[in-house]
Amino acid sequence: MGRVFLLDLDGRSYGCRFCNTPLALADHVLSRNFNCSRGRAYLFSNVVNITLGPQVERIMISGLHTVEDIFCCCCGQILGWKYVLAHEKNETYKEGKFVLERWRIVDNEEELNLDAQVDSQDGSSDTENA
After folding, report:
1. pLDDT digit string (tens) for 80-100?
2. Per 3-state DSSP, what percentage of the chain is helix, strand, and coil (rounded to 5)?
3. Model pLDDT for residues 45-57, shown as the tens digit of each residue
4. 44 neighbors 100 (Cβ within 8 angstroms)
5. What's the gap between Cα 97 and its chain centre?
6. How far apart are CA 20 and CA 12, in angstroms?
7. Could you tell me which residues are beta bridge partners of residue 58?
8. For residue 66, what is the enclosing H or E element?
9. 105 closest CA partner among 56, 129, 71, 60
């Protein structure tokens, strides 16, 4: 296999929980009201740094859909799925959209804030100064 080229994202973004590869901009979230088998999921208009699995037909809560599973291009973890075809007329708005399972992604802005908090606390331990 060839070399993997990653796209960097400017702005608040979501990344792979397993390797932190950037996946999607927060501005591309269409809905935060999706569910998957393990909890919450987000619907995105665009996702990068992924590979797609084969097309399969899957029965979901909203009906029958043709989907492709989404995998991180770096670590290979499954992240969600892409809607290829909705078999119900009122579900066609999902076609071409991406679902990322919330427990499989991290909000990179939250991660940066946590890192900043840890860095600001380093070296100021009461036990070190005693």
Report:
1. 999 999 999 999 999 999 999
2. 25, 45, 30
3. 999 999 999 999 9
4. yes
5. 12
6. 13
7. 65
8. strand 63-72
9. 71
